[in-house]
Amino acid sequence: MTAAGARERGAVLVMGILLLLTLTILAVSGLVTAVLELRMAGNAQYQQRAFEAAEYAIEQALGSPDLGTDYAYSTPKIVPDSGGPPSVPGSPTDTYVYRLYYDASLGGTPLPGGGSPGAGLEAYHFVVEATGYSSRGASDTHVQGFYLVGPAGSPASLRPRACPAGPGNCTSRSGYDPQRTYWLQAGAE
């Protein structure tokens, strides 16, 4: 073998090693990108689950059997009042907390829309601040305002309940389901 032939085989070896190195770098880069995209997709999923946990907390607060004007801003109903946060059914990793209070700044106000379905009824405004949590530190906070119709005079209990014989048979609107007024998502643009 001549010296020129040996140099050519050496050059082919160097080019092969460089090509192999380039392919290795591209493969590792593709793998890192795939892992990162998988992690980002998981984070988006957990953020959505936290959103849903916060919405579940709002639904729990709206269905609370002990809604009343005793829950002031300074003394709200806090769930949980002790222990760890409750889990969302069907998901042991997703939890929620909420803070519910009567908006005393509005007091008992006339019914929205100027309607007068019954004498001595007022709208009582409440606020729920709910936070849902999921895996990887995902959390989402929502604020929901709502009102209940009840008897005038700031009753201690405005428990929402259905009319005994159906909605068309109620003599007053007291006890109807909560009516949502506004909704906010903390940190949303």
What does this structure look like?
The protein is of the alpha+beta class and 189 residues long. It has one helix spanning 3-62; strands spanning 77-79, 87-88, 91-102, 108-109, 121-133, 139-151, 179-185. It has one domain (41-185).
Largest sheet: 7 strands, antiparallel
Count of helical stretches: 1
According to DSSP, the number of beta strands is: 7
CA distance, first residue to last residue? 74 Å
Overall geometry: rod-shaped
Mean pLDDT: 83
Rg is 30 Å
| Count of distinct structural domains | 1
Sum this structure up briefly.
The chain has 189 residues and is α+β, with helices and mostly antiparallel strands.
Notable features of this structure?
single chain, 189 residues, alpha+beta, 7-stranded antiparallel beta sheet, 1 helix, 7 strands, 28% strand
What is the topology?
Layout: H1 3-62, E1 77-79, E2 87-88, E3 91-102, E4 108-109, E5 121-133, E6 139-151, E7 179-185
Antiparallel strand pairs: 1-3, 2-3, 3-5, 4-5, 5-6, 6-7
